[in-house]
Design a protein that fits this description.
With 83 residues, the chain is mainly alpha-helical. It has four helices and two strands. It has a two-stranded antiparallel sheet with strand order 1-2.
């Protein structure tokens, strides 16, 4: 699984507040969206999101990771635009 794609999916899940909404925005399945986030959690060895049937929230580690990922992805996007 591509790590950069997983970071983008994680960012979009947090921004959308839902796996379903993020999947729709990204035009991928909800299952694939979940797999990307689960892959990140497995690689990091921490839970990034608290999930219930009605609510999604960042864990403490997830909050720190989200801010760093958001900044990194913004920098990468700026670099792409620059070239």
């Amino acid at each position: 699984m591509d790590a950069l794609t997983s970071l983008r999916v994680f960012r979009d899940v947090v921004k959308a507040g839902s796996f379903v909404k993020a999947a729709e925005r990204l035009d991928i399945s909800t299952a694939m969206t979940s797999k990307h986030v689960a892959n990140l959690e497995r690689q990091l060895g921490v839970r990034l999101l608290n999930r219930t049937t009605r609510h999604l929230s960042l864990t403490e580690a997830g909050s720190v990771y989200y801010e760093q990922c958001r900044e990194a992805l913004d920098i990468l996007q700026a670099a792409e635009v620059a070239v």
